[in-house]
Amino acid sequence: MLVAAVLATSAAGACGGGGEQTSPPASSTTTTPPYLPAVIDPPKTASPVTVQQVVDVRTVRLSDGAELKVRGLAAPDACWADAAGMFARTMLLEKSVEATPEGSLRLADGTDYAVLAVELGMVRNDAADDPAMKEAEEKASARKLGRWGPPCVQPNTAAPVTSRPGGTTTAPPAPKPVTGCSVEYRVTNTWPGGFRTDVTIRNTGTTDVTGWTLVWKFPSGQTVSEMWNATPKQSGPEVSATAMPYNQAIARGESVLMGFTGSGSGGNSTPGAFSLNGFSCTRA
Q: Is the preceding peptide bond at 151 cis, omega within 30 degrees of 0?
């Protein structure tokens, strides 16, 4: 009887009677999505942009069709508009530039065009909250450069044209030879194969200079690429820079600023001597 009971209990368990039936775990199939590498866009490189047209000293049209009014520059003064436009064409026309989203314009060497234009007195600053522009204008005003000098601001030493009875006029006397001058030659920026230089010519003599040509020789094979506030001429190492129509006069004790960009692979040594209209100048 005991054996029969045990067998009955075992059979019941096998058949699930009275006990909880355990189901085998359901097989789950996990599908892994295929690996898709992230698509990374190549870095965006700005296409070369050149200045196709100079409207005035602060407005240009670019090769991509955009017209840009350079941030921070005021409208050109009527007394200096032609000179400022000539400066802008020299520096920008057909040149590669970078136009920033803020409205600035950078030259190929990284120079901020607006700061340069204000520093040379080509135009007034219109960005009162910009320290660099404010400093540039203060320098130009102190040195009476560009629109801060003649003809916008007449010097007290200017010789007037006098009238004689009968309606005839007497022109000012012919300019006298240079009696004294000094030259400050300052490299303001360099990059591989190139440089930018400011040249300040001061009349230290006893007479006004009306019409001038500055001459020097490069010692390291440099060449002038572009020049502003003067017309360049180069023959071998010798360079001459002749006054523009708007900056012919250098009154006694006053100065003019000109500058240029240059190139060279043999170093950039400073010229050792300068002459103004044939007169040997001292180095400032």
A: yes
Same domain, 276 and 199: yes
Write the CB contacts of 146 (distance below 8 Å, at least 6 apart in sequence).
80, 83, 84, 120, 121, 122, 123, 140, 152
Number of H helices, E strands in the chain: 4, 18
Examine the domain organization and report whether 275 and 185 are in the same domain. yes
Q: How far, in Å, CA of 106 to CA of 72, rounded?
A: 13
Taking the C-alpha atoms of residue 38 and residue 49, their distance in angstroms, rounded to an integer, is 32
Task: Determine contact, residues 226/90, Cβ cutoff 8 Å.
Answer: yes
Assigned domain for 54 exists: yes
We report the CATH number of the domain holding residue 139 as 2.40.50.90
Rounded to 5 degrees, what angle do the CA atoms 240, 192, 224 make?
A: 10
User: Any idea what DSSP says for residue 93?
Assistant: B
If one counts the domains in the chain, the total is 2
pLDDT in tens, 2-39: 444 444 444 444 445 445 555 555 555 556 666 555 55
Asked if residue 156 belongs to a domain, the reply is no
- First and final CA of the chain: distance in angstroms? 131
Q: Which of 129, 148, 167 is the last residue of a domain?
A: 148
Residues 275 and 220 reside in one and the same domain: yes
Is 8 among the domain residues?
Answer: no
Domain residue limits at 62: 49-148
Element housing 99 (H / E): strand 96-99
* Ramachandran angles phi, psi of 118, nearest 5°: -70, -40
Of 131, 148, 165, which residue sits at a domain end? 148
Residue 163 dihedral angles phi and psi, to the nearest 5° = -110, 145
Per residue in 167-210, pLDDT tens? 444 454 455 689 999 999 999 888 888 898 999 999 999 999 98
Distance, CA of 72 to CA of 117 (rounded, Å): 10
Q: How far is CA 21 from CA 5, 14, 105, 182, in A?
A: 22, 10, 83, 111
